[in-house]
Design a protein that fits this description.
GO terms for molecular function: 2 iron, 2 sulfur cluster binding; metal ion binding; oxidoreductase activity, acting on the aldehyde or oxo group of donors. With 178 residues, the protein is an alpha+beta fold. The chain contains five helices and five strands. The radius of gyration is 16 Å and the shape is globular. The structure holds FE2/S2 (inorganic) cluster (FES) (2 copies).
Length: 178
């Protein structure tokens, strides 16, 4: 990930490394700021009520659903969307893995799936337990298909590409978690 996540000024949000003014209207969701104002259409609006995960982005490396948050909450923070993942060297390795494993069909859920998986991998690395974690005392979080399925359960795919999605995530992050 190349987006500069160092803090933006209090009056702006650093989005994919570029400082953007905080909206003057405090009612604007982060999702609408991204899509309607900045025309970053990679982040998708599905349910607009926190149920589908299509709008997932990373804030200072942590995954959030952007439809349920107000843009003003992120003044001074760094947001990374799907547009911020590839760099001069090419696609993020998880993006490539999605292609290699047919982890999408229509692609509508894909940006949210990828951002969510990146956040999830960081959570695993930090040792945060999930609902299916067996050994809560362990400092080393086991990487398993059950863990990935549980942790990615907030991201829905109406095309039913979940098997490819899990395979892509597993190929990308299983080794790093060992
Ligand atoms: S659009 Fe945000 S969770 Fe569905
Ligand atoms: S690829 Fe179509 S909704 Fe997931």
């Amino acid at each position: 990930m190349t987006a500069d996540r160092s803090a933006a000024s209090a009056g702006s949000i650093r989005i994919n490394g570029v400082d953007c003014p905080v909206p003057s209207d405090p009612r604007v969701s982060l999702l609408d700021l991204l899509r309607e104002t900045l025309h970053l259409h990679g982040t998708k609006k599905g349910c607009n009520q926190g149920a589908c995960g299509a709008c997932t982005v990373l804030v200072d490396g942590e995954r959030i659903v952007s439809c349920l948050t107000l843009a003003v909450q992120y003044a001074g923070r760094g947001v990374t969307t799907i547009e911020g993942l590839a760099d001069d060297h090419g696609l993020h390795r998880l993006q490539q893995a999605f292609i290699d494993h047919d982890g999408f069909q229509c692609g509508y859920c894909t940006p949210g799936q990828i951002c969510s998986a990146i956040g999830m991998a960081a959570e695993l690395k930090r040792g945060l337990p999930s609902h299916v974690t067996q050994d809560l005392g362990s400092e080393h979080m086991a990487f398993s298909h059950d863990e990935v399925r549980e942790r990615m359960s907030g991201n829905l795919c109406r095309c039913g590409a979940h098997n490819g999605i899990i395979d892509a995530i597993s190929e990308t992050y299983a080794e790093a978690a060992e």
